[in-house]
Design goal:
Layout lengths: L7 H153 L4 H135 L7 H24 L4 H4 L5 E2 L8 E2 L3 H15 L6 E8 L3 E2 L14 H7 L4 E2 L3 H8 L5 E10 L2 E14 L2 E11 L1
Antiparallel strand pairs: 1-2, 3-8, 4-5, 6-7, 7-8
Helix pairs in contact: 1-2, 3-5
């Protein structure tokens, strides 16, 4: 039976209201699930983008290396051509030198043969002169005997008186002939002796010349052999240079064929990188849209599993704002200092840490609030306030350890004093919406990432937006 105590139109309105509420809740939940899936897709795109950027960088390096090789190959060809030209000139010069050397050697052999024949003839002349000397000695001896006989004949002619006058004349003539013959023989002997001495000196000189000529012939033969070897070496070098030129030409042709393919591959990779970047931008836009849907759904009364967390982060953001306002009122810090975003780098920090004019205050007032927030829900990993630039001055104690020598360890354990200006950190600091619920992969350092939710609410101090309070928790 129908309940007549209620108007039909009012019952329908209640049903519509329930349905609408359920739809809003469903939209918010689906937006969260969609956001998680999109974040995972975005992470995959990020990894693909990094890999593609590395590939593109390697392609550019390879392209540069190929160009360097091509330039070097051109240099090799140019140098090889220059060396080939020089070798041709050298070969011609060596060939001419060999020809002249061989001609000179032939002349030297003729001269040496002539010198040796002269030495032989001088030996013959010396022998002849020796014979002449011997014969001249016999003539001198005979002339002396004749002279003695002539003297004796003259003596006998004198004894014979008139009868011996004719014989005396003959004896006198013979005596004069013997004396002339003796004097001539002495002159001939002296001449022959001098000539023999001169011939002996000439022969000695000729023998020296003959020895030197023999040495010249030996050296000329060795030089001829060396020049022949040099000619052979030049020919081998020419062959090697021709081989280099041939291979260099093959390399040039290969580079000519390779370069267009390389350009196409690099161009395709650049297009892929551009498409990935475009997909990343669209994905980030989808993430932002999903977050906006969640915000609007909750604002319209929708309920999600994170509603309790949203109320909690807004409450604690207001508490921190009140603490900051009390610090200004008590004179612990001025409003100018609290809103001074000038950062001073901490020396030798890696990753880089910085100090702000308000860091000392946050180190004093935030730990009691932030440490207690960790126990609100076991899923919470961190609670930290950031300024409008994403600067996180004071973190939870477990993430505020002193830095060591390992940057990867520092990235996971020393997260205070750092500026997180990534998409999530920047939005958490700059957003003035009642809350921002973001899904992201938290970089824990060393290549480790954790899929988390980042919930933040704005911190307003004296009516001014200082930053936001972030809560990171697991699904």
């Amino acid at each position: 039976m129908n309940d007549l105590s209620q108007r039909p139109d009012l019952a329908a309105e209640k049903v519509d209201a329930v349905d609408t509420s359920q739809i809003i809740d469903s939209v918010a939940q689906e937006a969260l699930h969609l956001g998680r899936d999109i974040v995972e897709i975005a992470a995959a795109l990020d990894s693909l983008s990094v890999a593609t950027e590395i590939q593109l960088s390697l392609l550019e390096e390879s392209k540069a290396a190929a160009q360097t090789a091509q330039n070097a190959n051109a240099d090799v060809r140019r140098d090889a051509d220059a060396v080939s030209s020089t070798l041709n000139e050298t070969f011609q010069a060596v060939a001419q030198s060999v020809a002249k050397m061989r001609e000179t050697g032939e002349n030297a052999r003729k001269i040496a043969a002539w010198v040796q024949s002269v030495v032989q003839r001088m030996a013959e002349v010396t022998d002849t002169l020796s014979t002449v000397q011997d014969e001249n000695s016999e003539i001198r001896s005979i002339a002396k005997q004749i002279n003695i006989l002539a003297i004796n004949a003259k003596i006998e002619a004198v004894r014979a008186g008139n009868a011996g006058r004719g014989f005396a004349v003959v004896a006198e003539a013979i005596n004069e002939l013997s004396q002339n013959t003796g004097r001539a023989a002495e002159g001939i002997g002296s001449a022959v002796t001098g000539l023999t001495a001169g011939i002996r000196e000439m022969r000695a000189e000729a023998e020296t010349i003959s020895t030197n000529a023999a040495n010249v012939l030996t050296s000329a033969g060795e030089t001829d052999q060396a020049m022949s070897r040099m000619t052979g070496t030049v020919e081998q070098m020419q062959t090697a240079v021709e081989a280099i030129t041939t291979h260099a030409e093959q390399v040039r042709q290969a580079n000519t064929r390779f370069a267009p393919a390389f350009e196409r591959m690099a161009h395709a990779t650049e297009e892929t990188v551009g498409q990935i970047h475009s997909a990343q931008r669209r994905t980030n836009a989808l993430i932002a849209s999903g977050e906006t849907i969640v915000q609007h759904s909750v604002s319209m009364g929708g309920s999600i599993d994170d509603s309790t967390m949203i109320d909690f982060v807004q409450e604690k953001a207001a508490e921190i704002a009140a603490v900051f306002e009390n610090a200004i009122a008590s004179g612990r810090i001025s409003e100018t200092q609290l809103f001074n975003y000038h950062y001073t780098p901490i020396v030798n920090s890696n990753p880089k840490q910085v100090m702000a004019p308000f860091t000392r205050l946050t180190d004093e007032v935030l730990p009691p609030i932030q440490e207690k927030m960790l126990s609100f829900d076991p899923r919470i990993a961190f609670c930290a306030a950031v300024d409008v630039n994403g600067y996180l001055p004071t973190h939870n104690m477990k993430f505020s350890r002193p830095q060591g020598p390992d940057p990867a360890w520092n990235a996971a354990n020393c997260r205070n004093r750092r500026i997180f200006d990534d998409r999530v950190g920047a939005k958490a600091g700059k957003s003035t919406a009642p809350f921002v619920l973001q899904i992201y992969r938290r970089d824990m350092g060393g290549g480790t990432f954790v899929l988390m939710k980042d919930l933040s609410a704005p911190i307003r101090v004296a009516g001014r937006h200082w930053g936001g309070l972030r809560i990171g928790y697991k699904f």
